[in-house]
């Protein structure tokens, strides 16, 4: 075979490799964007949230939306109904074991949950997009997470929130429910331990 006849085959192989690399890069970008798509928008709706400069949105008492029914199986197979925690301040964190920002914030969340549990604060996770509970359980073991997490692989629990309250694409997200079971504060991005404490403190101080 002449060099001229071999040239097109070489070119085709090169183009094929380039296409595969481009497809891989696109897939990687999609995974990263799914994890880092936190922002300030909850998808519309009148939720009475006022966004602060720190990225935390809050709603005044008397103007807060009711938290939806959040119940089902936890990642370790137990039954949980968040409504049973009414009378406490409840911190709900949406996370996935596949999400680097979730891994980064996990130690701080566990520390704050331990510090505030005797003050009437209950942490609850919503684990999403993990196709089995194995990775979620490994995540909890790695980061020492002791508070319960509902298992929500397809995001059905997240869709129960009033429109504009929670963006299902923003992982991680955190919500704070007041003692009456209403949504007092929201963050659609990863939180440092300092910001998490700042987010909880005003709701905890309410009488």
UniProtKB/TrEMBL annotation:
Superkingdom in the source lineage: Bacteria
Record keyword Transmembrane present: yes
Pfam hit, one: Redoxin
Main localization, broad class: other
Keyword list, A-Z: Cytochrome c-type biogenesis, Disulfide bond, Redox-active center, Signal, Signal-anchor, Transmembrane
Gene3D superfamilies for the chain: Glutaredoxin
Thioredoxin domain location: 61-205
Protein location: Cell envelope
InterPro entries: Redoxin (IPR013740), Thioredoxin-like_sf (IPR036249), Thioredoxin_CS (IPR017937), Thioredoxin_domain (IPR013766), Thioredoxin_ResA/DsbE_sf (IPR050553)
Record field: transmembrane: none
Signal peptide segment: 1-34
Cited SUPFAM superfamilies: Thioredoxin-like
PANTHER family according to UniProt: THIOL:DISULFIDE INTERCHANGE PROTEIN DSBE
Protein name (database record): TlpA disulfide reductase family protein
Species name: Streptomyces dubilierae
